[in-house]
Write a structure and sequence with these properties.
302 residues, alpha+beta, 5-stranded antiparallel sheet
């Protein structure tokens, strides 16, 4: 079974559970909550918004979409509207929740950054589906993220303004720090020179919207390999071919756009570098067995 097959099976099971769970509805573009708890008072639930959850201190586990992930001081989670979760608290825990809807991702006030913001959240959602936590890897990174969270909290306490451009930019900066701390672990690493393969995968992700830059000829030249050896090296390190990896990553981005953005099918196709809508539809149907417009309709009906 491939990684994509696993994701598809998990999605099917969770879709059944999802319909039975309590769902929290948020009408505001943005809400921020900060509290300390010794017991988690909420049932297993989903919601109609995104959440960033930061652990200031404490210890326990995060029950997320059927699995348990330990948390500790400076743990950071990104949840999508489809996620089902709750926390199990082992030691008194101080939480901050940043809750924002898809509308908030488009723009706020005079700031119009829909394309850039969506690219950020697309990449972070793909990563969170694989790793489930953005816990900073160094004390310096943890300190900076904690300071950012506290700045956002302070501004929210002063204004309670969901349209604050300052809060919007601080949250966007938080996203950039989260991206900076991503470590794209290979799917099947040989353990040899993982920093090199991570650098390569980062390059692919950063240029996924520029198809000419992630062709094998350019990648081999950028990283100092022959075209033939590069293909062998990538397959050895990642367990899949370059083409398979790029296609899989593009599919995750496309699905996120279909789920969460207001972009049309044509706009999504154009942004991901497809030559025409027909090519995009064939690519999607080959991977999902359904055309993208029907896939989006099913999501909206569920």
């Amino acid at each position: 079974m491939t990684v994509d097959d696993c994701f598809s099976c998990t999605f099917a099971v969770l879709s059944c559970i999802y319909r039975l769970m309590k769902k929290y509805i948020q009408h505001e573009f943005l809400k921020i909550a900060h509290f300390t708890a010794t017991e988690w008072e909420h049932p297993l639930h989903s919601h109609n918004h995104f959440e960033i959850v930061f652990i200031h201190k404490g210890k326990g586990s995060h029950c997320l979409s059927g699995a348990h992930y330990p948390y500790k001081e400076n743990s950071l989670f990104l949840l999508s509207p489809q996620d089902i979760h709750r926390f199990i608290i082992e030691e008194e825990t101080e939480f901050t929740f940043l809750k924002f809807t898809g509308v908030y991702l488009k723009n706020i006030g005079n700031i119009q950054v829909q394309g850039e913001w969506n690219k950020d959240i697309d990449e972070l959602l793909v990563y969170s589906n694989r790793q489930q936590s953005f816990t900073p890897s160094t004390d310096s990174a943890a300190r900076k993220i904690s300071q950012l969270i506290n700045l956002i909290l302070a501004e929210w306490r002063d204004t309670k303004d969901e349209n604050s451009e300052l809060i919007f930019m601080l949250i966007r900066t938080l996203f950039l720090y989260m991206k900076k701390n991503i470590n794209y672990l290979p799917i099947k690493s040989s353990g040899v020179n993982t920093s090199k393969i991570n650098e390569l995968v980062n390059y692919i992700h950063n240029h996924i919207y520029e198809p000419e830059l992630i062709q094998i000829n350019n990648l081999a030249e950028q990283f100092g390999y022959s075209k033939h050896y590069f293909g062998l090296y990538f397959k050895e390190q990642m367990g899949v071919t370059l083409g398979e990896y790029i296609s899989s990553y593009k599919m995750h981005l496309i699905i996120n756009r279909l789920k969460y953005s207001l972009f049309s099918i044509k706009e999504i196709s154009y942004e991901l570098g497809f030559t025409d809508l027909s090519h995009f539809n064939k690519f999607f149907k080959k991977n999902k067995g359904i055309n993208p417009s029907d896939f989006r309709k099913r999501l909206q009906a569920s």
